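Incident log, entry 3
Record: Glycine cleavage system h-protein (119 residues)
Problem: checksum mismatch between cached and fresh output.
Input:
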Amino acid sequence: MSEKMVKFSENGFWIKKEDDKYTIGLSEKGQDDLGQVSFIDLPEEGAITTADSLVGVEAAKAMTDLTSPLNGKIIAVNAALENKPENLNSTDDAVNWIAVLTDVDDEEFMCLRNLSGLE
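Fresh output:
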């Protein structure tokens, strides 16, 4: 049985831990902060740190780079977002996920928030 837990970053991501994989997507707070997304610059697979941009986003309210909430290794990217960046505004985490990380320090994950910031 896999262990699932969801946390939230200060800059608007949800992070779902399943075993040793960490899936990152845009939370309701992130969607509210940005507005309707019209363009996304996706990351490449490989190492990433909390100082690195996870995604560049162009949206109704802002054009910004959002830094990674965790240090780790990107092993998968949601390439469908390139043609459908509006999926970031979905509440369905099956379509609004951005990347999957491994090699994450579990203590770093546990320090993230339990609530999205809208509660």
